[in-house]
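Hi R.,

Here's the chain you asked about this morning:
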Amino acid sequence: MAIKEKKSETKKLLSKVVSSIQDKKGKDIISIDLSKIDNSITNYFVICSASSTTQADAIYDEIMEKVHVDLNIKPFHREGYENSEWILIDYFDLVVHIFLEDVRNFYKLEDLWADGIIKRYQNVD
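And here is the predicted structure, written out as tokens:
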């Protein structure tokens, strides 16, 4: 029973993170389900692109606020907010990556985890 509850919490977190990104017009939003991969560092990656550091900061702030207020969850770790080129928010079971477009194209993080199940989300205009 506890495993089902944990999966349900993770799905709620995933949904809240994606909707927060969409609210701030994040681009190319994907989630990668890594839960079936042995020794993966988390169950999900969520990756999105931002056009500017200002937008990256806005996406970060929206995720932090909505997840905390609506789900009462605080991240275990976060980094990259200082320069806002690649911001990481670690919620243990889900790790969010907010990239500037050129930085995302350089690192191609989704290619490194291509054996996970990739889901693409619609951009909201």
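One quick note: The chain has one domain: 10-120.

Cheers,
M.
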